[in-house]
Design goal:
The complex is a heterodimer of chains A (339) and B (388). Chain A has 339 residues and is mostly helical. Chain A has 13 helices and six strands. With 388 residues, chain B is mainly alpha-helical. Chain B folds into two domains: 80 residues, no CATH class; 287 residues, no CATH class. Chain B is 68% helix and 0% strand. Chain B is globular. Classes of the chains: A mainly alpha (339), B mainly alpha (388). Chains A and B meet through helix 1 of A and helix 2, helix 11 and helix 13 of B.
């Protein structure tokens, strides 16, 4: 039955229910009284990056390779690499500043870091009294332990830990046979870099263009490395990817074609395969990690040219490439008879 | 005032006559200017708390326990704010408006019987005084709006004038039934007329059909008069920023708020006195403690009315200007005139019970008829000619 003003009284009833209910029903009250109470932030929430160290602050994972500095869209990261008196990189940053007033929390630095050194924090209490200096986070502020990382993001951190452990195991496994048989690939020097690590191979009749095939091979090999524990390298001539050879002709058409291996997503065997018909400098470049990180003091091209030209004799400067690159460089130099 | 004078004569007969007069003047004045602004301060807190609870929030709870010091913090904040006067404003009028806004609101308390025999001034034309003075606040609103030299201020001021003048009419007519019933314009006499009966309750005018209708009409009028939601058209912030006090800050703004709230409280007090039995209630006529109990009844009833006003503010949306006007002139005015006839009919009926039933039914029928006359008919389902 309707009468004039019925809706008004229904509204009054609703607000009266809210008024009385708010004193008895805790579920109704949505207020979180901030300084005393805090909202439980979701695990994947992120604010600003921090640097992870293992055990003690001296064992920071960051090597100061500057990849994140280069990739950072708003350019809020500033890194100076720490070097000894001879100019040799000490594999750690001397200065690492993040201007959190500029940072847009995009997480790209985390994506590009090959060392799992930089991660996103979820601490949102960043208020400061000074809007210039206080909003620049210096190296000591940025360094946080792996335990902290595991505490704020358990799932993500345990995946990262598993990956790092797998890589360490792989390295140890690789180091052991290398000691036992220093030159396993002596009979086939040119084709030696062919071993393709990984379980995923692309069938030859798969409908891909050469570019797609090259990219896919790199993607699959890196995905395989991330996803599971390392498998023993499969020595197989069948996965030499003949199509890729066509993709690397000796044309000077475009820079991208000129150095098709210049892609950090590709695995070492693919890169070496792409460069195998090239002169020594190109092969050396293909052995680099392709990140143009400047850790060595050059970009990838420059470092390769410097080694080939004899200006640089230290073959262990490529930090992102780690032992893999150093070993390959040594092998290439030996093959070229320059050592 | 007379009560205090008589008390002084009984207790301290040696006091000189002028000092006795002075004290009997000073005590009610001090009472009014200390108690009612305090009620104003805590009404703002109660309002914010209640609105918060209505919206399932906590309301202010940081300053003091349960936010009890919040009014003091608000006051300090408003007092220390910069006082801004627009460059092209009419400076003198701009300054005068908030002062004038407070004066009539405070003066209203002069005729309110806050307890049994406790009335600052027992004017024999109390109701007339209330209406005459409360309309004076519209002058302040218009002065403020005009002097600010701001379109929104002026619009708000004009709306305020239109609204207050319109709602004054049904409000006065609604109050008229009480005057008819008691034959007096004095608020004290009106309050006394509602004493007696069962527990000092059953004689309240609100329990008569015409009294109830008068109470509703008077409440609506009082809310419109003090520009409370849903009649806060003069300061509709979604349309005209803050209306007439757009250009006021700091202490002057606080004075406007004070005036508005005091008017609201005073009109709640007048409503209580005229329809809800005033200070009458169980125990209000006991010897020795009666004055205290009656004061308790008056203030608790007044706070109850204020709470209803807050509750309404937390619930109902603001009416449009045209709805505001048509509601006043097409609905409230005829209803209040009919109510006067109903009260007269009630008075001349032979039996009280018969009178009660007849007037109740008659008023209900009139309410229903007016609603039908004013309705736009059933809202039809809208059809779109070109949509399909």
């Amino acid at each position: 039955m309707g009468f004039l003003g019925k809706g008004l009284f229904q509204g009054m009833a609703v607000t009266a229910r809210n008024f009385v209910g708010s004193y008895f029903d805790k579920e109704r009250m949505v207020t979180v009284q901030y300084p005393e109470e805090r909202v439980q932030v979701p695990e994947n929430s992120r604010t600003f990056p921090f640097l992870v160290f293992d055990n003690t602050a001296d064992h920071m994972r960051c090597v100061g390779c500057k990849i994140c500095e280069e990739e950072c869209p708003p350019q809020c990261i500033y890194i100076v690499m720490d070097r000894d008196e001879n100019g040799k990189p000490l594999q750690r940053p001397k200065v690492f500043d993040i201007d959190i007033s500029v940072c847009m929390q995009c997480q790209i630095c985390v994506e590009v870091c090959p060392f799992e050194a930089i991660k996103m924090d979820n601490n949102y209490e960043k208020s400061q009294y000074d809007r210039f200096d206080d909003l620049v986070e210096r190296l000591p502020d940025l360094l946080k332990s792996n335990e902290y990382y595991n505490h704020i993001k358990p799932a993500e951190a345990s995946a990262v830990d598993a990956k790092l452990k797998a890589e360490a195991d792989k390295k140890a496994k690789k180091a052991a046979p290398a000691k036992a048989a220093p030159k396993p690939a002596a009979p086939k020097p040119a084709a030696a870099p062919a071993p393709v690590a990984g379980r995923l191979v692309i069938p030859e009749d798969a409908p891909f263009t050469p570019e797609q095939r090259a990219w896919l091979a790199g993607f699959l090999s890196s995905a395989g490395a991330v996803a599971g524990p390392a498998t023993a390298p499969v020595e197989s001539a069948a996965v030499e990817l003949p199509a890729v050879e066509e993709a690397a002709p000796d044309t000077e058409a475009a820079p991208a074609v000129d150095t098709p291996w210049h892609d950090p997503g590709l695995a070492m065997p693919q890169r070496m395969d792409l460069a195998k018909e090239r002169p020594l400098a190109d092969k050396l470049m293909a052995a680099m990690a392709q990140t143009d990180c400047h850790a060595c003091g050059y970009d990838c091209r420059g470092y390769a040219d410097a080694i080939a030209g004899g200006a640089e004799s230290d073959l262990s400067l490529c930090l992102p490439g780690e032992g893999e690159t150093a070993g390959m460089l040594e092998q290439l130099m030996k093959e070229a008879g320059k050592v | 005032m007379e009560t205090i004078y008589q008390l002084l004569q009984t207790w301290l007969p040696n006091l000189p006559e002028p000092i006795m007069r002075l004290i009997s003047f000073a005590v009610p004045i001090l009472f009014v200017i200390s108690v009612f602004p305090g009620i104003f301060a805590y009404t703002t807190l109660i309002e914010r708390k209640a609105l918060g609870r209505i919206q399932n929030r906590l309301g202010p709870n940081r300053v003091g326990r349960w936010g009890l010091l919040q009014p003091i913090a608000d006051g300090m904040k408003l007092l220390t704010k910069e006082d801004i006067v627009p460059r092209k404003a009419d400076k003198f009028t701009h300054f005068l408006a908030p002062v004038i806004a407070v004066i009539p609101s405070v003066m209203l308390f002069a005729v309110l019987p806050v307890g049994s025999g406790l009335i600052p001034v027992n004017l024999n034309i109390g109701i007339l005084f209330v209406f005459a003075i409360s309309t004076g606040s519209v002058l302040a609103l218009f002065m403020g709006g005009w002097a600010s030299r701001n379109k929104f201020s002026l619009l708000g001021a004009m709306r305020a004038v239109a609204q207050v003048v319109s709602y004054e009419v049904p409000m006065v007519l609604a109050a008229l039934v009480v005057v008819m019933a008691t034959g007096s314009l004095s608020l004290l006499t009106i309050a006394q007329a509602q004493s007696g009966g069962f527990l000092n309750i059953s004689n309240w005018f609100v329990f008569q059909p015409w009294g109830f209708v008068g109470f509703v009409l008077f409440m609506i009028g009082a809310m419109a008069e003090s520009a409370r939601t849903p009649f806060d058209i003069p300061e509709a912030e979604s349309e005209i920023i803050a209306g007439y006090h757009t250009e006021y800050s700091g202490f002057k703004f606080a004075l406007f708020q004070l005036g508005e709230y005091l008017a609201s409280i005073a009109l709640a007090g007048v409503t209580v006195t005229m329809f809800l039995g005033g200070y009458n209630g169980p125990g209000s006529h006991l010897p020795y403690v009666g004055w205290l109990i009656s004061m308790g009844w008056f203030f608790s009833k007044m706070m109850g009315v204020i709470f209803i006003v807050i509750w309404i503010r937390g619930t109902w949306p603001r009416v449009r200007v045209d709805q505001l006007m048509s509601f006043a002139w097409k609905m409230l005015l005829p209803m209040s005139i009919i109510n006067i006839f109903a009260a007269a009919l009630y008075h001349f009926m032979p039996s009280k019970f018969l009178a009660w039933v007849v007037t109740a039914v008659g008023l209900l029928i009139c309410w229903w008829g007016l609603a039908k006359l004013n309705s736009d008919g059933e809202i039809k389902k809208r059809t779109y000619r070109y949509a399909n």
